[in-house]
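Could you join me in thinking about how sequence relates to backbone shape in a protein? Would you write everything just below, so we can both look at the same thing?
***
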Amino acid sequence: MAEIVLDKSRTALLIADFYEAMMTTIPHAVDRGVVERTVALQKAARDAGVMVCYCATVFRPGYPEIGSRNKTFGQRKASGQPAVFDPLDVIHPAVAPAEGEVAVGKHRVNALYGTGLDVALRANDINTLVILGYATSGVVLSTVRYASDLDYNLYVVEDCCSDSDPEVHDFLTGRLFPRQSEVVQSADVIAALAG
């Protein structure tokens, strides 16, 4: 693997859909120590002065953001479960945002679509995103594809991502993501941030 070189002033860490409910129950996250690795990476990013951002999928009461043709979220709307509107209510407390860090609520899978995240990144002259989270086949995939089209430099932190289907995770990180991003390990990113 090539050495990772980051311009810290133009890099952001995106902790995407890092839900406590998922990260503490899905074997792919628990068995691989995803929470512990992410906590270490978050600390390294903060210590390096790198912008740290978060996203979580949330909706208003009654789910007005979900249309009848939306297969991804239509079942959630029909389920009758109460909507959660504040992203801070679902982000894993071990990686809770600090004062001043950007946390956006999103209404689609992609962290950049229809949110203020891209605006915040561009306002801070960020051109490199280090992405991790749940699910590899959801927010990570969708955001990588979209962010690549927006010309961001991308790093996917493989050992800080998880998915309910480990085979899909392996396919995406081994075969698909390398077409649009560098697939890296958290220890290598931490070393780059310390340098």
Remarks:
- The two ends are 17 Å apart (CA to CA).
- Residues 57 and 106 are 5 Å apart (CA to CA).
